Amino acid sequence: MKIPLHYSFRNLWTRRLTTLLTAGGIALVVFVFAAVLMLAHGLDQALVTTGSVENAIVVRRGAASEMMSMLDRNTVHIIQSQPEIAKGSDGKVMAAPEVVAMINLPRRDTGTISNISLRGVSAESLAMRPQVRLVAGRHWRPGAAEVIVGAAVAKRFQGLGLGERIRFALSDWTVVGLFDAGGAAFESEVWLDAEQLLQAFHRPVFSSVTVRLTSPDTFLSLKDRLEADPRFVVEARRERDFYADQSKMTATFIRILGIFVTLIFSIGAIIGAMITMYASVANRTIEIGTLRALGFPRRSILFAFLVESLFLSLVGGVAGLFIAAMLQWLTFSTVNFTTFSEIAFRFAFSPAIVLDSIIFALAMGFLGGLLPAARAARQSIVQALRAT
Question: Does residue 79 contact residue 226 with C-beta atoms inside 8 Å?
Answer without folding.
Answer: yes
